[in-house]
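Lecture notes, continued. The same structure-token format from the folding unit now serves as the input rather than the output. Read the line below as a description of shape only.
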């Protein structure tokens, strides 16, 4: 077995002990005589899997009782449409655009109402988070939307926006479960799970109960109503049973690591190793303003596209995979999610240091 250090932005690494547990249970889940892949979602044995998964994520994130946890297919992208469709009252939506993902979400929302971009960092290629302490929030805004960690541009919020009483909706896909968050400050937190938690094809939506409405536009498809998922315990139709099972394993693994406080400490240490190197390097430099650097996605460049490509090729040959930056930023990007071990980051930094010495 030769596992590489996989720096992919997503789908991304999963913790090795979790993969091993899944492997051990693959053919016969706990004496059921079948794989989780083969099981009825209505069976007793599967009910226990989904119920434990929900209980464990509630525990990890300290989710208040007046919030529902929904497991919905379609990834994070489906939420770009479900959010405006379900929260629409006045048909006015305020978006803070800080990178590719919030921009995409804003353009999807335009199909369902009037979108105000109330702040943006597009002027400097999304390399920072704008001041969000006193924004021109529309009196009629149904919600204020952010992408709390921009996966492609590598920025993250240090403070949540002052929404002046409006509902805050946050896409946490690429920071999901990476640190403690105060759920009560949000109307909706959601994330596609393939960045920080499990296999692709599932979004976890944490939504305050009063935002789950029956009186949405009658044309909203049945599957796209939060009320349907809430009333049916995420089992209106066949859910993504496999992904929910894998996520449940990761929740238990995180609890053993010391919960989100424990995970955050490890993530801060890992990111510091890489950022310290970049801050002291003459060849490489981070692309994001220091204050807003993500702990999860670290874009960096040499300043020369050919050189960048040579470094990517050299890292790949040395067993570090998926370091090519997204085309909109260029250069390199190291995604160092929860499951990336500290040794992976240390090994990468050692390699880049040596590369710099030998090539300058
Ligand atoms: C990856 C990503 C998405 C899209 O996720 P899908 O599951 O592919 O739809 C949305 N938002 C953020 C922040 C992401 O990182």
């Amino acid at each position: 077995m030769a596992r590489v250090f996989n720096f992919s932005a997503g789908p991304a690494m999963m913790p090795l002990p979790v993969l091993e547990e899944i492997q051990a249970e693959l053919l016969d889940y706990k004496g059921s005589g079948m794989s989780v892949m083969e099981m009825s979602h209505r069976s007793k044995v599967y009910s226990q899997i989904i119920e434990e998964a929900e209980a464990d994520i509630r525990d990890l994130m300290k989710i208040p009782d007046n919030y529902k946890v929904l497991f919905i297919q379609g990834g994070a992208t489906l939420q770009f449409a479900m959010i405006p469709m379900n929260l629409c009252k006045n048909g006015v939506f305020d978006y803070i655009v800080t990178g590719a993902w919030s921009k995409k979400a804003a353009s999807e929302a335009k199909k369902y109402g009037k979108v105000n971009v109330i702040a943006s960092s597009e002027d400097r290629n999304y390399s920072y988070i704008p001041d969000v302490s006193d924004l021109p929030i529309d009196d009629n805004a149904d919600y204020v939307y952010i992408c709390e960690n921009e996966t492609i541009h590598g920025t993250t919020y240090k403070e949540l926006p002052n929404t002046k009483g409006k509902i805050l909706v946050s896409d946490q896909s690429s920071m999901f479960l990476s640190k403690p968050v105060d759920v009560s400050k949000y109307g909706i937190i959601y994330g596609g799970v393939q960045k920080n938690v499990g296999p692709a094809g599932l979004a976890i939506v944490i939504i305050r109960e009063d935002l789950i409405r029956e009186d949405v536009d009658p044309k909203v498809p049945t599957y796209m109503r939060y009320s349907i998922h809430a009333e049916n315990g995420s089992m209106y139709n066949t859910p993504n049973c496999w992904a929910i099972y894998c996520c449940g394993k990761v929740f238990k693994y995180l609890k053993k690591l010391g919960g989100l406080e424990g995970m955050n400490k490890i993530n801060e240490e890992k990111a510091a190793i890489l950022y310290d190197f970049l801050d002291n390097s003459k060849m490489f430099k981070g692309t994001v303003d220091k204050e807003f650097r993500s702990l999860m996605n670290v874009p960096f460049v040499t300043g020369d596209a050919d050189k960048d490509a040579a470094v990517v090729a050299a890292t790949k040959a040395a067993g570090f995979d998926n370091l090519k930056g997204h085309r909109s930023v260029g250069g390199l990007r190291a995604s160092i999610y929860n499951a990336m071990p500290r040794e992976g980051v240390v090994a990468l930094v050692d390699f880049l240091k040596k590369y710099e010495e030998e090539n300058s």
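Point for the exam: The longest helix spans residues 259-280.
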